Amino acid sequence: MDENRIPLHIGLIMDGNGRWAKKRLMPRSYGHNAGMNAMIKIAEHAQNLGVKYLTVYTLSTENLLRPEEELEGLYALFRKYFKKNLQKLYNSGAGVKVIGDVSVLPEDVQVLLRDGENNSPKDAAFTLIFAINYGARSEILRACNLAVERGEKLDGSGLDAYLYTHGVPDPDLIIRTGGEKRLSNFLLYQAAYSELYFTDVLFPDFDEAELDKAIAEYSKRERRFGKI
Question: Of 15, 17, 33, 133, which one is the catalytic site residue?
């Protein structure tokens, strides 16, 4: 790994929790719990490597169409892990940001997420960004509608100001686990020049060594951003 080419911002599509659980003849909730543990380890490792932003695709707008029982299980994980790990995150110099429309989530989960953001260090050296009830198309439509309401004609920088990710650099690298090769409505505007890395590894098995492999591959690529 070239330590001088560590990505500033990594986007992570955490796919494969359900299939991981199914292979073990366990319910999907078992896989989501394992995935949450894996995500915590990956965030810690990314911070130690010098990554400044890690955006994890936690719950998409489409995911909200899943059975209520599965959604309640995911909310229970937020309740269990979010508050438990926040102080540890803060103590390491890291902060939290949430992107997406969280207004449809249970009220207590909304409070947890808001408090996580509001209590984050203002000068955090590392930011863990949770994309929750997030969809890139919805984000772009929201940004355009906000601009129309204010009578603004948008250019590139103007649109950036209305996106959930305002103030966060575009992802240098987007990783998707689980074998699928698509972005699934994740950071579509921001990913215009992101490097993409796909792996067959199911997310609960995506450990620190797998992240190192992805970053090593990224470090070998030449990024020209459309130039010669």
Answer: 15
| pLDDT digit string (tens) for the chain, length 228 residues | 666 689 999 999 999 999 999 999 999 989 999 999 999 999 999 999 999 999 999 989 888 888 888 888 889 888 988 878 888 889 899 999 999 999 999 999 999 999 999 999 888 999 999 999 999 999 999 999 999 999 988 877 789 999 999 999 999 999 999 999 999 999 999 999 999 999 999 999 999 999 999 999 999 998 877 776
Is 170 part of the annotated catalytic residue set? no
Q: Which of 2, 33, 63, 170 is catalytic?
A: 63
- Note the CATH architecture for domain 3-135+170-220: 3-Layer(aba) Sandwich (3.40)
DSSP string for residues in the chain? --GGG--SEEEEE---HHHHHHHTT--HHHHHHHHHHHHHHHHHHHHHHT--EEEEEEEETGGGGS-HHHHHHHHHHIIIIIHHHHHHHHHTTEEEEEES-GGGS-HHHHHHHHHHHHTS-TT-SEEEEEEEEE-HHHHHHHHHHHHHHTTPPP-HHHHHTTSTTTTSPPPSEEEE-SS--S-TTSSTTTTTT-EEEE--S-GGG--HHHHHHHHHHHHHSPP-TT--
Instruction: Examine the residue annotation and report whether 2 is marked as an active-site residue of this protein.
Output: no
pTM over 0.85: yes
